[in-house]
Amino acid sequence: MFDLITAWLAAMGSFGVAALMLLENVFPPIPSELIMPFAGYLAANGTLSFAAVVIAGTAGSVAGAFLWYQIGSLVTEPRLRRFIARHGRWLTISVADLERALSWFDRHGRTAVFLGRMVPGVRTLISIPAGMTGMRTLPFLLYTALGSLIWTTALTVSGYVLKAQFARVEVLINPVTNILLLLVASLYVWRLLNSRQSR
Fold it and tell me: Which stretches make up the VTT domain (predicted)?
């Protein structure tokens, strides 16, 4: 899987980084904790530009967050709850996830948008309460971009710095990433089945 992801990113370049980060924010098939370090590794060996990787990762992340912001601004909370209760399993989102994001936003206000970009489990949905409460678009995009920039830069740096280790332990990374993606897929299937049984 290491070879597959790095080959795909190398072939698609910065566009591939942006696309995967957008997908990770809408429907997380591959977490950003895998995407950006791999992209950083490719930047370290000269395949990609470090600056382009960070910009693309941030842009994809902001685009995904803005989609959820728009959804939050267009629907009411009860309607969104009903939608997630019925169809959220396909997006690996539960009502509990929505409640966590709403609670996070209530506690931290606008800074939740900034901080939430760096918190797994909150990152995907923190944009919804921002849209629901009528947070203005420009401040939302600014906070989101800053938080996403810090997060993607940190992950890219980790891959860049660990270039030598990536090369040494590639034999171990392949099975580890395979297991991780298998666990993600298994969790997705489990949530689908569990949701169906609950209904």
Answer: 30-160
